[in-house]
Amino acid sequence: MIMEFLVHMKVAPIDGGEEREKQLREQEAVRSRELAKQGILSRIWRVPGRRENWGIWRADDCDQLHNAFVSLPLFAYLTITVHPLASHPNDPEVQTRCATEDAAPSAGIAL
Amino acid sequence: MIMEFLVHMKVAPIDGGEEREKQLREQEAVRSRELAKQGILSRIWRVPGRRENWGIWRADDCDQLHNAFVSLPLFAYLTITVHPLASHPNDPEVQTRCATEDAAPSAGIAL
Amino acid sequence: MIMEFLVHMKVAPIDGGEEREKQLREQEAVRSRELAKQGILSRIWRVPGRRENWGIWRADDCDQLHNAFVSLPLFAYLTITVHPLASHPNDPEVQTRCATEDAAPSAGIAL
Amino acid sequence: MIMEFLVHMKVAPIDGGEEREKQLREQEAVRSRELAKQGILSRIWRVPGRRENWGIWRADDCDQLHNAFVSLPLFAYLTITVHPLASHPNDPEVQTRCATEDAAPSAGIAL
Amino acid sequence: MIMEFLVHMKVAPIDGGEEREKQLREQEAVRSRELAKQGILSRIWRVPGRRENWGIWRADDCDQLHNAFVSLPLFAYLTITVHPLASHPNDPEVQTRCATEDAAPSAGIAL
Amino acid sequence: MIMEFLVHMKVAPIDGGEEREKQLREQEAVRSRELAKQGILSRIWRVPGRRENWGIWRADDCDQLHNAFVSLPLFAYLTITVHPLASHPNDPEVQTRCATEDAAPSAGIAL
Amino acid sequence: MIMEFLVHMKVAPIDGGEEREKQLREQEAVRSRELAKQGILSRIWRVPGRRENWGIWRADDCDQLHNAFVSLPLFAYLTITVHPLASHPNDPEVQTRCATEDAAPSAGIAL
Amino acid sequence: MIMEFLVHMKVAPIDGGEEREKQLREQEAVRSRELAKQGILSRIWRVPGRRENWGIWRADDCDQLHNAFVSLPLFAYLTITVHPLASHPNDPEVQTRCATEDAAPSAGIAL
Amino acid sequence: MIMEFLVHMKVAPIDGGEEREKQLREQEAVRSRELAKQGILSRIWRVPGRRENWGIWRADDCDQLHNAFVSLPLFAYLTITVHPLASHPNDPEVQTRCATEDAAPSAGIAL
Amino acid sequence: MIMEFLVHMKVAPIDGGEEREKQLREQEAVRSRELAKQGILSRIWRVPGRRENWGIWRADDCDQLHNAFVSLPLFAYLTITVHPLASHPNDPEVQTRCATEDAAPSAGIAL
Predict the structure, then answer these.
(1) Does J52 sit within 8 Å of I78, measured CB to CB?
(2) ipTM for this model
């Protein structure tokens, strides 16, 4: 059973000079693409003006999720907050998976 | 230019009895499907154990977003928090839109 | 894959008089025993002096966990906070499951 | 009378290089096993993505608990928060200790 | 083994009119004297200008402490926060219990 | 008129090596005993697992209290929070000072 | 020894209609003038746009201060926070009390 | 029109050794006296046990106030919070300025 | 000297039915236009999804500002927070007022 | 569609000595004027006594806004918080854009 998680990451200043920072960024971009291909990193956005991001991550459980975080080259610089998510009957993606709309669950948003 | 927003909603207790609550939920489900079809409501998840949700919403600007919220039958019961988002170079969706991977922007997560 | 969750619950005052409160408490005790037998409610403690508890819950994912909460007769009175947990190499229970101690993972607490 | 405590630990970055960190982790794992055998460290989980853990600790009183913390090789790096716990009538472990279920205390969760 | 706890209490407005409030206060004063005689309520102070107090309570464990709180006639109106305490080597009372000062433990305050 | 204060102290890491820390702790223990003999330091407890303490201090006013803090060898490392206290009619010590119990003030706890 | 206190007050909505509110305000104004004449209420300011005030109060100790608060006709509606103050060597009033400026204590602001 | 402001200052540790700190303190004391003579610094108190102060400052507007702060020799070490104040009808100083008490404004404290 | 203030307003639910709410809104719109014409209300924005706004207000001092707030028909429903502002050398409006750009003050943003 | 944003910036201490700080400030002033001419930086104010500012920024979306922040010479020292804004019917600027006042939208402030 795949679970989705809302994840917030805050990046501390990178020590070791600009060259090392550039290197780490490139390694991070490579690792991000791998996690995306494995279906673990689903979406990621910048918080405007901040060294922070919000992302949607997918994993079987928190151990797999934790291991994905640890595999990030920038892991030592990240302060990570995991918001566990449950599925919502009004989620457009849930509704698409249902064959007919009449069969779709009905509930007020956030209830 | 379409923007994406991370939106948190907290639902206050509904007054007026169970019948009214059921009615409002059904109207909310209908309106949610409309907003999903218009591409405004992109994803929505329950916070487990709480009358709260996290969602990804899409709009041209905050006025269109605000009007979408006001159109929800449960609007009077919602405490809404909007987190503005900027695009991230490692976002899998951004990368899919780029023709070749070599052309994809490279940056460390959250930088 | 069974996950464990640390769960905090705060109970709002029960309306409807003492008789109704007594009834709800008894139904809650019955439901708690059922959830314990299903292996979902693992441990639960009172916060001394408060209408709050801390518990260890087990579920396949957040949907099953959410449904367990909703099944509680007192659900409408609860403010629930879910802390997702990952397994820890020094956890005594993890170590018991390993055949020999030499094979046990080694890591500092909290690392 | 043995008491149980919910304990949160946050680990600061270890100074002195990777070798020292590896050494400290191994010493911590050894000490954890000793505390587990003494029945003081009951359970411990990682907070996914963070250098933090949640644990269930058992001690006669806060002095014994404090001494157990001080005995950890990583103690100087830990920010520890102790949540005192009282027993709950619906706790599965309490109920197991009672001979017959009819004799078990009955109370709503969190009351 | 007797433990000491620092306890903060906040009192919500009493409903039912002035007569009932006066009655509850008198019952509370009686119960306070009983708890003091049993050695459970050790000291109590008002927070100036607020319906709050700070107290030093003594109990064998959190169950006995919780039961003492529940026995207060005003319990339903109290928001209680328990701060667990460990003994301090510089505590004047600890030092008085030691026969000779040379034998007293020595440590900096708060270490 | 002697006032009592609830005082929380948090101790920052001591710089200058273990020897200096040991020295400062011994000086602190000596100064603590002096303040206890002067009746200014009344009680002090450790927060379990933390470099923090809670204490009951007695002084004529905040100037005398401030001077007592400044006289501590560890003062430069302390973050101090003073909670002013007023006397409570149910305080066991207040009641002991009254000749007859019938004359003791009566009030609900925390009122 | 007179102490000074910085006091913050937040006023809850007054129940009982406009007439009762007007009456209470007038009684409060009368009582304020009395406290000012006794030298207990020294200064008072409004927080612009809020039902809150900041004041400088003077009293022998927290018991006298608490009694002054309780004597306010609006006391039941007030949420009061007391900030204890110590004298500062650079306080203009302290310096005025010193005969010659050369004798005035010298210290950096806030040290 | 002179306005009054409630100002909180927190002083960071001074770098550069004891001699420099002593020098800065003396310069600060001198500048404080100048600001007091200009009527800008009205009152100042220590927060007991902390490197913080509360003060009453007077200025035409926030620009003049800001410039007064910048002129402090310790400015680089200060974290300053400005609480804007409006005049209160019950303020003893306001009432003294009014010729007759009958003409004084009447209002409940904090209204 | 005109000062500018950043003002946050939170609007509580209006009691008395929809008709009264509509009436109050119209009166509020009228009063807003008057305050705008007087140059007191400079700009106002909605917080998307919330009954809150941010505004730029202009007044001689906090008394005039407070009186403007009190004159709002919705005043009883508002929780207002005033952020005092000082002028910034890089403010485009300040720079426009200066005859030549060479004469404009130069400073880093926020310094 | 141009959006407006309320932006708070906090400036960390600049390393590298006074000369470098002066240089950065001058570059920042130059860049500020450019952003003002492009209509992106609309207004900016100092928080009195603090290395913080509040500003009104204008951009097509959060990507353009983020890029404007990144272009600031002081960007590495800034902690930026973006408050998204929606237009308000009572905004004086909105009303000016409407041809006749009768056509202006009417709503209570903050509704």
Answers:
(1) no
(2) 0.87
